């Protein structure tokens, strides 16, 4: 799988226009801050971008970020501007042609930004332990449509958990399937290179993430994928695919269910770009100044992470009221709702 990914992204594709499906394309409208930062990224780097989502988590100024599968460097150079001079971005990629583009423009970006805080490392994201990356040294790990390309996905999740600081998060976009993709389709270089045949069944993703120590994966955004290439679609008939962004926090104390302790939070409106509404995930659009009921897990994701200064916290864990109703194990996709007026306790 690694060899095919290297060949497809290093030799078959010369730019994003060569893709045959929209699986490796980003459809989300970026914020004004992200658009400004993208304008500062070299055009050759932007031309070789193959991500499927926006991997730009909130409140990352001063953070140390690891980008898994950084490719030609668009996300790395974008995030470098947002973390600023007190932060850093380390990109890891296994495709020499992609890394050559990223490295060729390091000085150009340093001059553009007025500082240099990016480095690139050649390596396999399935074998991160072989690289010179210290445990618990990163605040945030991102990845953009790359984990589907590797064979040992569990190894990636385990390594990410090891490399994150306590309270840190893995924030990543990837392609998922509504059922397990037949193994023989991995042998098709186009299906694999287009991020489809290696896509995880969402239930297997949930299991692997939890086994790695990420006890409560949170879906941020999702969109169904259209397979417009007839030849590709015929080979995948009956399988539905989505592009989804998840956030996985490294936190002790997260529970298997959304438990109700009578807690609530009040957002101060102080996260840049989200002054009116803070979006934790697809079920938590928290309006500034409004008392918002949360489960114990959500409380910890806000109180024990970099988000803590932006919230007031009401209550504690001293009394348990049972599980929040409606927090089950149904298919997670297709439920994204950014309407902040929906604050029912059932969506804890």
Alpha-beta classification? alpha/beta
State the helix count.
Answer: 11
Extract low-pLDDT stretches.
Answer: 338-346
On the 0 to 100 scale, the average pLDDT is: 89
Indicate the overall shape.
Answer: globular
Number of strands: 13
Ends apart, CA distance between termini: 39 Å
Using only C-alpha atoms, the radius of gyration works out to 20 Å
Percentage of helical residues?
25-40%
Let me know the largest β-sheet: 8 strands, mixed
Bin the strand percentage: 15-25%
Helix and strand succession? HHHEHEHHEEHEHEHEHEEEEEHE
How would you portray this structure in words?
The chain is an alpha/beta fold. 26% of the residues lie in helices and 22% in strands. The strands form 3 sheets. Strands 1, 2, 3, 4, 5, 6, 7 and 8 form an 8-stranded mixed sheet that branches. Strands 12-9-13 form a 3-stranded antiparallel sheet. It has a two-stranded antiparallel sheet with strand order 10-11. A hairpin with a 2-residue loop joins strand 10 and strand 11. The longest helix has 11 residues, at 2-12.
How are the SSEs placed, and which strands pair?
Blueprint: H1 2-12, H2 32-38, H3 43-47, E1 64-68, H4 74-83, E2 88-93, H5 96-104, H6 106-113, E3 118-122, E4 138-144, H7 153-163, E5 164-177, H8 189-193, E6 200-201, H9 202-211, E7 218-224, H10 230-235, E8 241-249, E9 263-267, E10 277-281, E11 284-287, E12 291-294, H11 296-303, E13 311-314
Parallel strand pairs: 1-2, 1-4, 2-3, 4-5, 5-6
Antiparallel strand pairs: 5-8, 7-8, 9-12, 9-13, 10-11
